[in-house]
Amino acid sequence: MTARAFALTYDYLCPFARIANETVVGALRTGAEWQVTFLPFSLAEAHIDDGAPSVWDRDFDEEGMRGVRALAWSLAVRETFPDSFLDFHLELFSARHDRAADVDSLDTLPRVATTAGLDPDAIAAVVATGKPLAALADEHTNAVDRWSVFGVPTFIAGDEAVFVRF
Fold first, then answer.
1. b/e per residue 5-43 (b: at least 16 CB within 10 A)
2. Which helix (H) or strand (E) holds 115?
3. pLDDT at 153 over 90
4. pTM, entire model
5. What is the mean pLDDT of residues 131-158?
6. pLDDT of residue 97
7. Interior angle at CA 4, CA 87 and CA 17, nearest 5
8. Are 104 and 13 in contact (CB under 8 A)?
């Protein structure tokens, strides 16, 4: 049997995205034969005012950037430490939704990384290159342009996409 391939969008701010992502990760960890691409989608970018600069063109600490630094860290982990991505991914959702932590905080992100068995300095160094933010811009923009994604969680398979609210 061929593994089912699909993508699933996420932003750590959304409790519905948490439910979907935790469910998919749980299924993967119990043997689901799926090829899943975890696709970041910035709710901050989706909600910018007309004419305002994109979140890709702002500093992480500017107003209107909630969730963007967390997404950049997740992409640094996904691309550089892929074997640890699922642990980091779930731990960051847990930090936000179980402990009400600020997922963009430079106190929270290193703690999450350490809990997931990662070196936070190594992740911060990758984020500092700008590559994760550029990847976020590309992946978010592609999701909007190709599948008309407007929120999280959205499941994407082939040319079809469906937004789901749990």
1. ebbbbbbbbbeebbbbbeebbeeeeeeeeeebebbbbbb
2. helix 108-115
3. yes
4. 0.96
5. 98
6. 98
7. 45
8. no
